[in-house]
Amino acid sequence: MGRDRERAERYVELADRVLAVARAVKARDYGDPQVVRLNATEISVMRFIDQHPGCGPSAVATAVGLQRSNLSKALRALEAKGMVAREVDATDNRHAALRPTPRAAENLARLQRSWIGLLGAAGDTVSDADLETAVQVLRTLDDALAARLA
């Protein structure tokens, strides 16, 4: 088997396992009745706003690969759920600045505690070095994929 084929098979397994872990994590998150439920689009939008507070809708749309109409719908839903606040941009009052709300911060903290409990219990056999390597690989892939959308 050639190196390219072996590498392709590793990517397939990586994607499959990431999806399997993601399903397990998501199932656990919603076991907490106080977690605000978000759909996949809302999660992507919220993640970007959490990482870039004060960003504008155009930046969000570009980063997550959404049409403006779909982004508008997601933002309205997030505002209705109390997760996003839309403010006037301090540098240009014609534009909006998007910020996560205290409710969003509380929701994220609740999710993170759930993730730590789930993955910490399941990952007792994972060394600190392997955990760091896994995080670095996923961070590199996430950054490279995000750069392709920009």
Automatic annotation (TrEMBL):
Question: So which domain of life are we looking at?
Answer: Bacteria
Stored InterPro entries: HTH_MarR-typ, MarR/SlyA-like, WH-like_DNA-bd_sf, WH_DNA-bd_sf
Matching SUPFAM superfamilies: Winged helix' DNA-binding domain
The chain positions of domain HTH marR-type read 11-143
Q: Which Gene3D superfamilies match?
A: Winged helix-like DNA-binding domain superfamily/Winged helix DNA-binding domain
The record's section on Pfam families has: MarR
In Swiss-Prot or TrEMBL terms, this protein is called MarR family transcriptional regulator
